[in-house]
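Onboarding guide, step 5: your first structure request.
Type a short instruction followed by the sequence, for example:

Predict the 3D structure of this protein.
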Amino acid sequence: MRMGFYYSLEDWRFPHQLPHLPMWEDKSVYQPMVEQAHAQVRELMTNYGKVDILWYDGSFPSGIWRSEELNAMVRSLQPEIIINDRSGLPEDFGTPEQHISPQDRPWEACMTMNDTWGYTAGDKNYKSVRQILGMLIQCASQGGNLLLNVGPDAEGRIPEPAVERLRVVGEWMRTNGKAIYGATRTPLVTHSFASSTRVGDRMYLLSAHWPGSTASFGWCGNRVLSAKLLATGERLIVEQKGDRVWLRGMPQYAPDPNVSVIEITVEGEPKWPEVRFT
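The system replies with structure tokens like these:
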């Protein structure tokens, strides 16, 4: 198992770090917190074996934290590490928060299960299973990762509404994980029928709005060899004519109440221009 650290550059034990106070105008005021950050990050990079990810949190400019110096030290101690973009420098991957915004480099969307990051007893606005799967699929289909936050209560317990939803998502992943793990984006544009991901010579159509017994999509690339329901292995009839592929013999009703997945195998590595479902 790979190991990483979350590290908050800001430390709330320093009362002068609160953003409504003008601490950043006087270097002598915030310097103790910066020195602490450098010392603690060095300790994390030195005392715990191989570290794969350093996930900073914080929102102030890189000059405040002396981030170039800090990250150079990190990479000297952990040459294979990857670092996120929250020290004020782009580094290795982006971390859009509370929105899913694809980037032209590795990225992961940081999303909450309800409306808060920590535990808030009064926050009952939990996302549904369908919403969570939708976020997961949106990230995977656009080449990103989903970082889903769960806030434990004061006793360290995961709130039951989160547990209930995560169990259902976990069951879905056990059945359909092939469409998510290691997936990359495809040129197929999301529409009302399905989103799509690609793994090797297989493409996956992930449908939250099942079209019934027949569906089609535009395709100008490799020959389509086969199609099946991922959950059951049931084969579908494939008809490829010109720039369209028709899928027939599908169940009239969605096999999964949340998101159903079709696995499509093509001849060789998928290569095609960008197309759009119609």
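Each response can be followed by summary notes, for example: DSSP finds five helices and twelve strands in the chain.
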